[in-house]
Predict the structure.
Amino acid sequence: MKTFSIALFAVIAVSLNVKAEDLLIKVANPVSTKHAANYFAAEGLKSEALTENWIRVQGNATLEKFQNFLESDSIVHVQKNYKIQLRQNPSLQKALSAYLAKHPEQAVRPFAPAQDNPAIPNAPSNSSGADPLFSKQWGMKDIGVENAWRVNPGNNKVIVAVIDTGVDYTHEDLLPNLWRNEKEIPNNNIDDDKNGYVDDIIGWDFLAKDNKPYDLAATSLGDLLNGGNPGHGTHCAGNVAARGQNAKGISGVAPNAQIMSLRFIGNEGGTTADAVLAIKYAVDNGAKVLSNSWGSEGEDPDDATNNQALKDSIQYAADHDVLFVAAAGNGHQGKGYDNDNDSKPAYPASYAHDNIISVAALDVNNNFGSFSNWGRKSVDLGAPGVKVFSTTVTNKYSDTVIPLLGANWDGTSMACPHVAGAAALYWSAHPEKTHAQVKEAILNSATRIAAAEGKLVTNGKLNVDALMKQ
Ligand SMILES: [Ca+2]
Ligand SMILES: [Ca+2]
Ligand SMILES: [Ca+2]
């Protein structure tokens, strides 16, 4: 095993040369991550056990501090805690950069700031009636949801984790479908269900480390231009599972599914460590579908790095029969758009795990969004992702991020939640099926479209009507 250790020294040395202040370390099975975390803490480093195999180590991690662990062959992988970014909205970025070039003074003018972490309302009483804004959701009609709901409206509640910037959990049309952790007594400051999180009644905020995963949006145009949060998670959540037939707003593809809100991305992005924690939380607390409209800078073919921690987390989901639905991406690491993921992979969508469904963005005319990635072997199907109407922060609804600038809600980020909702709806009707069978049903029922011929695995787009009739 000595050669293995020497190779690891090299890996660590590379990591150290880049920046050693924030590392993810995978330890061998017989070593508990708590024990490892204690070891590194004793060496004066800040450390935290993330899973049974992974720990995060922060501080001045010199080689000497790893020495004992290396000699005992306890470390099997070391990597950077790679940054995570939202799948940026190309329409928004284009409109913002054009506007701010002419009006630079507007970059710092603050919007009316939303209050972070409002109280979590109780579940509302049921209301019923048509959803008044449903006709604005062109995508829902396009994928045949109304026929699908006649087959089965998904009353057998499936939990979908929206792993993103949080959600506006006070929103009238999301509130009825929030996942509630029944094993947790609210606000008693005790981790009643002993899952490691105190008073986690609707999910968790891994970024701020609190029990209120509120979708706190950027407060100026300049922040938005620099990749800040436009209220991304709230928009995604609406197309997964805004409550249907409640006489309010819109409907998600799965109008009765439950939304587990997990926040790990803010205006500065997020990290792999928090993605690992969020995925583990979702799997351990009952989510069957994970909706992931984000990307990692790890595994960028340009720097040949390996985000093993993220890969292990997606495998953990697969091992627990959980689907990982991912946005195919809007270009390659923000460089250009319309990218072929077969030759230039976008992660996590392009990982080989069998529980990943990679989703491209389509417009109302069955064409790809001009920005959307594709890939004959690596992107599975298309879904509505151009000028998408949904729930927005502070209890609103829209298909535009900034109406005055003509910036629409565009992106594979918006396409991904449609497929996550479809998976939840189908799984609700067929709870006995495995994640592989649910994925197969979604891919087999896709409708072929000319634009996707030879560019997507299915050559087509999501068809929930056909899916539910299978
Ligand atoms: Ca708890
Ligand atoms: Ca929070
Ligand atoms: Ca509604």
